[in-house]
Amino acid sequence: MTGGNESCIAGPIPMSYLTCLTYILQEWTGVEHIGDYLSYAFYLVWVLFPLAVVFILPGVIVALFYISILILHIYKRKNELKEAYSHDVWIGAREMLATLWDGHGRIWHGYELHGVKNIPEGPGLVVFYHGATPVDYIYFVARLHVTMKRRCFVVADHFVFRLPGFKILLDVHGVLPGPREACVSTLKEGHLLAIAPGGVREALFSDEMYTILWSDRKGFAQVAIDAKVPIIPMFTQNVRESFRTLGGIKILRSLYERIRLPLVPLYGGFPVKLRTFIGEPIPYEPNMTAEELAAKTKAAVQALIEKHQKIPGNIFRALMERFQTHKKDD
After folding, report:
1. Which residues contact residue 135 at a Cβ distance below 8 angstroms, ignoring those fewer than 6 apart?
2. Rounded to whole angstroms, how far apart are CA atoms 174 and 166?
3. What CA–CA distance (Å, rounded) separates 207 from 130?
4. Which of helix, strand or coil describes residue 253?
5. What is the mean pLDDT of each successive set of 10 residues along the chain, which is 330 residues long?
6. CA 68 – CA 102 distance, rounded (Å)
7. How many CB atoms lie within 10 A of CB 284?
8. Phi, psi at 154, each rounded to 5°
């Protein structure tokens, strides 16, 4: 060390390691008061790091999607010979992905599914409130597959089908863009089908008040009437505390209404408690109109929200609920 650096440990009053480091940097750089700059830098890191985390965590879900896609491509490569002899070569792949996502839901959110007794043995239309992401629906489908070996198709927005690399994932899991005829056909084949009438608009622009944004949509009700199946209402507690959006910014709402693309920033990925509640089925009634059935379904979903969700939603409270016991409804 040079004579200047030796002064860090020499003399009657030895310097601390941090003070010594600051002194050395000042000597090397020639910048006066470098300690003040370092203190400011450390302060920025302390303040901005949590903000960076809440915007980075959603990338974990995106990574899991692409891991799932990679698994499907590997599975397809390994099972090319079976494809010609099997009516559904993807059964094993669905089981693997269901185990993957169910494990993630259990570990990260302590995910619980209540009211499975309300799911009919035959076909049915599951209608649910759409959170900022559909991660709760993914956990629901995974748990349904793991515990009951049931498959549930779902209707998704058209932009989902333009996401790079997602085609194989959407095909394997029965994600449909519509139209109504395809939905009715799926139900008549005996499958479960899920629809979130609020769609992307509800995902982006609802908030911690859990406002249902269905407008006057009733197409889902007409699907249930045409297929003569019950509607099963569903809601996931704390889904808005897991992920949130900046949908309250008016210019972003105007931009979405003009181009219909979900360009609203997303943040969160918090390990809050998630519980999915399945309500009692609304049976098919031949004399009920689509408008009446849509209103009845909306009221059923609203009742689940009022029963199981504390409003306004609170992220800290939702985190603390990970440590609370909950009486099972099943």
Report:
1. 61, 239, 242, 243
2. 12
3. 11
4. helix
5. 47 54 61 57 50 65 91 84 62 93 96 96 97 96 95 94 93 92 96 97 95 94 97 98 92 89 88 97 96 98 97 95 70
6. 13
7. 16
8. -150, 150
The whole-number pLDDT of residue 328 equals: 52
Angle at 166 between CA 162 and CA 172, to 5 degrees: 125
Structure tokens at 154: 């779902």
The amino acid sitting at 183 is C
For residue range 141-186, list pLDDT tens digits in order: 999 999 999 999 999 999 899 999 999 999 999 999 989 999 999 9
> Among candidates 189, 185, 168, which has minimal Cα distance to 90?
168
Identify the pLDDT of residue 60.
Answer: 83
Q: Within 13 A of 163's CA, how many CA atoms are on the CB side?
A: 17
CATH T-level assignment (fold) for domain 57-323: Glycerol-3-phosphate (1)-acyltransferase (3.40.1130)
- Measure the CA–CA gap between 4 and 23, rounded to whole angstroms: 9
Length of the chain: 330
**How much is the pLDDT for 213?**
96
Distance CA 49, CA 1 (A): 35
Separation in Å, CA 214 to CA 95, 96, 206: 33, 34, 11
β-strands 175-176, 243-245 pairing: unpaired
List residues with catalytic annotation: 130
- Give the residue extent of every domain in the chain: 3-54, 57-323
The structure tokens listed for 318 are 């939702």
- The three-point CA angle 251-215-299 to 5° equals 130
Token output for 103? 């494990």
Q: What pLDDT is stored for residue 13 in this prediction? A: 45
Ranges of beta strands (E only) in 129-226 are 152-155, 175-176, 192-195
HEC letters along 17-64: HHHHHHHHHHHHHCCCCHHHHHHHHHHHHHHHHHHHHHHHCHHHHHHH
